[in-house]
Design brief:
20% of the residues lie in helices and 29% in strands. The chain is α+β, with helices and mostly antiparallel strands.
Length: 99
């Protein structure tokens, strides 16, 4: 029996800056997980991933990341995605500079 589909977001790395980015419902990219499009349908998730992969001049390594709905938007369900959402742990710049 196949596993039931769980909510996802499309994530990748910005080709020029290397930052973790997330696909929005408006076909843009954001560095904030809470602003990412929360995808609740498997077919729609595959279409959104194909859309992301069609932008090789902007993004690299696009994939679907499992998330859960939260009060402010999608929230990570796995340590890897929680770590990626906060940025590098050994530098006081980027996402961590504003924290």
């Amino acid at each position: 029996m196949p596993r039931p589909f769980t909510p996802k977001v499309v994530t990748a790395s910005d080709l020029l800056e290397g930052d973790v980015i997330y696909l929005t419902a408006e076909d843009g990219w954001t560095r904030q997980l809470t602003e990412a499009e929360l995808i609740q349908d498997e077919a729609h998730a595959q279409l959104r991933l194909l859309f992301a992969e069609s932008q090789p001049n902007s993004v690299v390594g696009a994939y679907l990341a499992e998330v859960k709905p939260g009060p402010r938007g999608p929230e990570p369900t796995h340590f890897r995605e929680a770590f990626r959402a906060t940025g590098p742990s050994n530098y006081a710049h980027g996402k961590q500079a504003g924290a």
